[in-house]
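Tip: read the tokens left to right.
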């Protein structure tokens, strides 16, 4: 159980989620920060995928860098949800399952399902809303973006827009994801994606931190926070991965966050003799919201994640 923290105080707890081969407790660190004033209860989770570290730095900034003296309500901060994946430097748990496919979990299920159940029942369920922090999967990078079901969850859509993220991406939920399980329990969740796995990228961390604070302000938890001046926010309604047609060495000609027009050259595949073999152009206008970081491709490998702009949620 999370502790009952008095107003104006914080508490660090270790939530036991499993036991090691040596019968030692395996715990998830959780910090509960309660403001002087009443307000909502919200969670911020990171590293549900154990190799996605930028969110760990975002939560640490919330813990140690941000002045939360004016906090209204309670923040439940979890810098590392998948402690076993993080310590073994992998996305998954030791039973090779993906934690973000088994929520809300099962107290009698697999090791991963039990872990999910404890996190869901102790951290997620007591909250009014939440924020889950991710990065691109290994060997890919994402432009900082917020993902929400813009049609299915008005509360999450409003949080996504209010975050001021440069890209608001409409994304239906996946079965077993924390976002879907929380939504089904009436707890709106937005997911931030930014940068690469296995890195602390300070610019990404700084951007996502501002977005998180804007979501908290939107929900009334930081009434003293001045609105941020966001120059341009792109609402992406459709996304698709453009894939390599030929194997070879990749010459990527676009960067993350860049706008492209139909017909623009996106990349070429070069053979070992340095001769260009195949150039791929944008099939439509859009934005580069993600891309591979590996300069080598086989046919079919995902190279550029293209987002198509659409109307803002009503
Ligand atoms: Zn992830």
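Filled-in amino acids:
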């Amino acid at each position: 159980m999370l502790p009952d923290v008095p107003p104006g105080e914080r508490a660090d707890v270790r939530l036991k989620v499993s036991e090691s081969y040596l019968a030692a407790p395996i715990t998830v660190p959780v910090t509960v920060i309660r403001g002087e004033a009443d307000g909502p209860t919200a969670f911020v989770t990171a590293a549900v995928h154990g190799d996605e570290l930028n969110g760990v730095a975002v939560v640490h900034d919330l813990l140690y860098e941000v002045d939360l003296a004016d906090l209204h309500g309670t923040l439940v901060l979890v810098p590392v949800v998948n402690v076993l994946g993080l310590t073994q430097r992998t996305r998954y748990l030791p039973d090779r399952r993906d934690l973000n496919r088994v929520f809300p979990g099962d107290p009698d299920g697999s090791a991963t399902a039990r872990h999910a159940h404890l996190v869901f029942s102790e951290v997620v369920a007591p909250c009014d809303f939440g924020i889950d922090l991710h990065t691109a999967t290994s060997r890919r990078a994402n432009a900082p973006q917020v993902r929400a079901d813009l049609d299915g969850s008005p509360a999450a859509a409003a949080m996504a827009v209010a975050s001021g993220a440069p890209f608001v991406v409409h994304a239906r939920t996946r079965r077993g994801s924390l976002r879907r399980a929380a939504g089904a329990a009436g707890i709106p969740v937005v997911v931030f994606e930014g940068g690469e796995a296995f890195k602390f990228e300070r610019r990404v961390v700084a951007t996502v931190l501002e977005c998180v604070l804007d979501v908290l302000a939107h929900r009334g938890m930081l009434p003293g926070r001045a609105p941020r001046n966001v120059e341009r926010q792109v609402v992406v309604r459709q996304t698709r991965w453009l894939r390599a047609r030929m194997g070879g060495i990749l010459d990527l000609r676009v960067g993350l966050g860049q706008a492209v027009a139909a017909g623009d050259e996106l990349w070429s595949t070069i053979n070992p003799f340095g001769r260009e073999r195949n150039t791929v152009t944008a099939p439509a206008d859009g934005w580069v919201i993600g891309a591979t970081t590996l300069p080598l491709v086989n046919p079919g490998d995902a190279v550029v994640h293209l987002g198509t702009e659409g109307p803002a949620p009503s």
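The helical segments are 54-64, 83-87, 111-124, 154-162, 178-184, 202-218. The domain at 10-218 is CATH 3.40.630.10 (Aminopeptidase).
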